[in-house]
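Lab notebook: predicted structure, single chain.

Context: the supervisor wants predicted structures on file for every construct in the current expression panel, including those that have not yet been purified. This is the next one on the list. No modifications to the sequence; it matches the entry in the shared construct table.
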Amino acid sequence: MSQLSISYLKEGSKSTEPLLEICGITVKQGAVSIINNFSFSLYKGDQVKITGPNGSGKTTLLNAIAGIGDGEIVSGDVFINGKIVTEEPTYKRVHNSIIYMTQLNNIFSNLTVKDNLIMALGPMGPEILYNEFPEWNNDLKLNKIAGQLSGGQIKKLALVMSLGRYQSEQIVMLDEPTAGLQGKLPNMLEHVNLIMITHD
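Prediction complete. Output recorded below exactly as produced.
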């Protein structure tokens, strides 16, 4: 039985169709139901926090939206920008629509912070860090090898690499973004369409 709880940190405009609509999905891993008949909608400007104990299906839900992981949607549907994507492959779901940062903090540990930013965001990566994440400039020195960063600094770098390409119609999904992170999340998150997972 799913024990997921949804709370809205910020509500956007309901004047247009939702960016994301989850309609009664049930997700199984093998014979085990992880999520049962779960529904919610995310409109432009919405910021949603999903909580629940370990094993309640929080990460499984985000994986089901993105079309990854070993969970299978056995009933219900997922709509992105009004289009049903339940049977679509991952690349079609996320392309220009979803930014999904998992708990893995995917970085290139043997490269510098600067090179990580360029790999993820293109030549403007360092400038994006400077302009969009000014509160983290002191923590993320461009010439530092990423593998030598602290756990919190790696989390910050991974967040910049994920969020630096954000566009206003995209859905940002963050799985435990504050784990190991000292201080608050970046100010730019105040303006994104957000689904964020946290523990109870």
